[in-house]
Amino acid sequence: MTLEQVRRLVALGESIHLEFKEAAYALPETFFETACAFLNRDGGTILLGVKNDGTILGVQPEAVEAIRNNIATQSNNSEKLDPACVLFPTQAVVEGKIVLCVQVVADSQLHRTKGAVYDRSEDGDFRVVDPARIAELYNRKKLFYTEGTLYEHLRFEDLRADLFPKVRRLMANRNPEHPWLALDDRQLLAKAGLFKRDYQTGKEGYTLAAALLFGQDEVIAQIVPHHRVDVLVRRQNLERYDDRLDVRTNLIETYVLVMEFIGKHLPDSFHLEGTTRVSLRDKIFREVVANILVHREYTNARPTTLVIYADRVEAENANVPHHGSGPVQLDNFAPYPKNPSIAKFFLQLGRVDELGSGILNVTKYLPQYVRGAVPRFVDGNIFQTILPLAVYPLGVVADLWLDRLQLRVAEVDQQAAQQLAVGESLRSHLDDPERLFYELGTSWMRKGHRLNLDKTVPDDEIPDFAEWQDTSPPQKGNRLLSVKLRHFAATLFVCLEPKPLAEVMQLLGVSSRSRFKTAYTDALIQRGLLALTLPDIPSSPNQRYQTTQRGQEFLSGS
Q1: Residue 459 above 70 pLDDT?
Q2: Which of 4, 146, 239, 315 might form a disulfide with 385, Cβ 3.0–4.6 angstroms?
Q3: 3-state class of 474 per DSSP?
C-alpha cells in the first residue's frame, strides 16, 4: 500500500471497512477479532500504529518485524483463524512514523477466531452468538460468493498435478518463506479455501474456485461449459477481427496466455521507478487481466472479452454489482472481491496486489503509457474497463483559453495545456475550435456549480451558442465564466506544472496571499482538483501546487 493510499484512508476515518489500532510494541489482542469480522462481512483494512481519532502514533521500529511475523504465522494457524487465511502486512512511513497496513479480503467461507464468530458494523466488531444470525451470515456468503459452490464428486485427480510446481515457484518468488511452501498439494488447496466442508449439510469437497484454478480442461468444460476468455484485435476488420485468442483453460495459465497475446499486439514503454526500469505495458495490463479473471461472475454465461482497437482497449466481464452501478469514482469507491478465494490465490502468486490496487495502478500508469489518457471503469452487471490508446489534445483551443484568461505562461506550461486530452463527450467538436471553446467553457460552468465553486445557476446563465457567437472575441470568455470561475480555471492551468504559490499569484496578478489561499487554492485542494507536492510539510520552502488528475479532467471536459 502506497503512502498516498494510507494518507487517504487516515483522512477518511474509521468505518465498516476501516479500523485503526494502536500497536507500539505488540500486536493488539483484538486484531484477529477485527480480521475475522472483515472476513465475514465485506472485507476491510486494518492500520496498526494509528489512534481511533486518526492520530499517527506509529509502530516502534524494533517491534515491526515481530508484529509482521506474528500476523503472517498466526493468520495461517486455524486456532487463530478457522479456516486459516494468510495475511501479509505492508508498511508505510507517515509523518516519520511506521504504519503497518493489513488488507483483509472478504471471504466466501464463514470464519471464527478462538471458536467465536465475529461480524462488522459501523460501530466496530461484535461477536455473533445467535445461531439464526450465524446461519444468516453463512447463507449470505453462499448466495453471493458462487465461487464457493461445493462439488462433492470433484476429485483431486481431476486437477492438474503439473500446475502445483509452477504455483510454488511463483509463491517462492514473491515470498521465499511463504508458509504454504511446506504443505503438500492437498494441504495447500485446503489452506487456500479451495477444499471445504458445508457446515449445514456436512458435505465436503473441492469448490468451483478449485476447478477454475487447477481443473483439467475437460473438467472445467463440464462444470462451467460457458467459461471462455475471448481476446480480439480489431484495428482493420471492425466487424470480425484481425487476430484472436480464444482461451478455455484454467485461470493460472489463462493469465499467462492473455498477457502474451497483449505483448504481441501492444507496444511497450519503459519507465524508471527510482532506479528500477519497469514495463508500463505490463504494469497496466497485469492489473486489467487479473481483474477480469478474479472478479468475474462465473455462473453467468457471458464470456469475458478484451478487445484491442486502434484507439482504445475495452475489457468486459460478467459481474454482480455490490455498491450500485455506474462509473467508478476513485475518490470514494469501495473495492470488493467477487471471488475472494481466487483473489487471495492470485495475491499469493504475486499477480495482484491488495484489493482495489488494480484500478489505482491503471489510473497511475496509463497517463505515462499514453500521455494524457484517463481510464474509465463502469460497475454494473457487466464491469467495463476502457483504456484510451490515442488522446485528442486541446491544442489551439487551450491557447485560446489561455489568451481569454489573460495568462502569459512559459512554453512548458503552454505545452502542458495544449496536451490535455479532450473529454469523450466533446470530441465531436474537434474540427470546430470555436464550438469546442464554447463547450469547454460551459462544462466548467456546470462542474463549478456542481462542486460548489460558483453559486451561479447554470441553466439561467449559459448563453445559447448562436447568441454567444455574436459576442466580441475579447468578451467571449467573460460571457461563459464568472470572475471567480475564471480564477479557478486559471489556477488549474497554471499548476499543470508544479509551482510555488508566489509564482502562481504572480501569473494570475493577485496580491493577497491569505485571501487567494482561502478562496481559491484551499477550495481546489478540498475538492481534489489541486494538491500540495509536500502535503506533510505544508510550510516547506520547497512546497509546490500541482493540478491533480481530477483537475486535468475538469479542464479538459472529461
Answers
A1: no
A2: 315
A3: helix
Amino acid identity, position 286: R
Q: Give residue 324's pLDDT band: very low, low, confident or very high (50, 70, 90).
A: low
User: What is the rounded CA–CA span in Å between residue 194 and residue 346?
Assistant: 13
- Stated as kind and residue range, the H or E segment containing 124 is strand 124-128
What distance in Å separates the CA atoms of residue 267 and residue 281, rounded to the nearest whole number?
7
CA-to-CA separations, 427 to 400, 423, 424, 556, in angstroms, rounded: 17, 7, 5, 11
Joined grid coordinates for residue 179: 508458509
- How far CA 359 is from CA of 387, 442, 526, in Å, comes to 11, 30, 22
Mean pLDDT of the chain: 87
Tell me the three cell numbers of residue 27: 500486536
Nearest to residue 291, comparing CAs of 359, 340, 348, 226?
359
Rounded distance between C-alpha atoms, residue 76 and residue 35, angstroms? 12
261 pLDDT band (50/70/90 cuts)?
Answer: very high
Under DSSP, the state recorded for 46 is E
φ/ψ of 234, rounded to 5, equals -130, 75
This prediction has a pTM of 0.63
**530-532 and 276-279: which strand pairing?**
unpaired
CB 209: neighbour CB atoms within 10 A? 28
Do β-strands 195-197 and 204-207 pair in parallel, antiparallel, or remain unpaired? antiparallel
Residue 389 contacts residue 310 (beta carbons within 8 Å): yes
Mean pLDDT of 439-467: 77
pLDDT value at residue 290 = 94
For the record, the C-alpha cell of 220 comes out as: 472445467
The CA-atom distances, in angstroms, between 310 and each of 233, 256, 319, 346 are: 9, 23, 26, 30
DSSP labels, 266-318: S---EEEETTEEEEHHHHHHHHHHHHHHHS--TTS-SPEEEEEESSEEEEEEE
Question: Rounded to the nearest 10 degrees, how much is the dihedral formed by the CA atoms of 73, 79, 81, 87?
Answer: 0
Residue 458 has pLDDT above 60, yes or no: no
User: Under a CB-based contact definition with an 8 Å cutoff, are residues 530 and 504 in contact?
Assistant: no
The 3 state secondary structure assigned to 378-422 is EECCEEEEEEECCCCECCHHHHHHHHHCCCCCCHHHHHHHHCCEC
Mean pLDDT is lowest, of 1-5, 171-175, 364-368, for 1-5
| 314-338 as b/e: b if 16+ CB within 10 A | bbbbbbbeeeeeeebeeeeeebbbb
pLDDT of residue 166: 96
Using CA of residue 412, residue 414, residue 419, residue 424, what is the dihedral sign?
positive
Across 111-136, b (16+ Cβ under 10 Å) vs e yields bbbeeebbbbeeeebeebeeeeebee
Higher-confidence position of 130 and 427 = 130
The SS3 of residue 235 is coil
